[in-house]
Amino acid sequence: MPVYPLAARSASCASPGCRCHDRRPAYPSDTTDEQWQVLQPEAGAVMAELAQVSGRPMVHDRRAMVDAVFYVVKNGIEWRALPVDFPPHAAVYKFFERWTERGLPETLVHRLRDRLRARQGRSAEPTAVIVDSQIVKAADTVGKDSRGFHGGKKINGRGRHVAVDVEGWLLAIAVTGAQISDRAGAKVLVIRLLNVFTTLQIMWADSGYDGKPLASWIQRFAGITLQVIKRSDLPGFQVVSRRWVVERTFGWLLRYRRLARDYERRIEHHEAMVYWATIMIMTRRLARYQSGAPPHGRWGAERAASPPQDPQAA
Length: 314
Hints:
Blueprint: H1 33-50, H2 62-75, H3 89-102, H4 104-119, E1 128-137, E2 148-150, E3 155-164, E4 170-177, H5 182-194, E5 202-205, H6 212-222, E6 225-228, H7 243-253, H8 257-260, H9 267-290
Parallel strand pairs: 1-5, 5-6
Antiparallel strand pairs: 1-3, 2-3, 3-4
């Protein structure tokens, strides 16, 4: 029995009782018209490239499907708790599962990142990468075979090993059990980075990645120089060069409640949730640029001197 209170005869969708084609944005996580103008061409092109077989086309509205996934990522709810103005939860989850296996969210992140880097005055291919890890608690839905205990932080869960460019945009992610060390996670990240990028020359990391064996392995295997940046010994809070960029990226991701704790049974679904959150962040940034807002300058570039203020003007 469908949960939709609409009669089948009034439905705008082939699915009984579903009116996803007439849906209007109603939640903060929904894409605005400006954001959909940014995302829809990229998503359509990637889906056409990744389609494996030709068959019956999807009956539900693509924007409604994407907004439903965004709703889950942003609000951290169960799939079955999706509001009734979205397509049926089973169809949304199948959309998420199928296109995760085909690599849709990861490919979208790469394409949106290229556009953002161009807007910020950088080439599409990065030459520098910043890596770090984050430990998150695992819910009871996470199996024992894919989780672990982190002795230092006393957390039973999973670790997110991420690599970002100098602007903080995601380059690669590897999710492991929390017991996996930063050095082991860095090797997985390097392998994934090499599958996409060929221009990387330097990698910045914190003291958790220190050690000659790891630096030698990365240099020999990937031709990348590992540079460890340690904290300052000065008292009080000090911004650590380069490392603050990846910490800011973690801050962006933790605004999405589905990422505040790990609920995913499968590791690849956890990685997909990170990619979908990144898609939301990138899409909103690009939409703001297209609306006329000036792009952020390159980090580290000299700031233009502000004009002197006339004391009489006040």
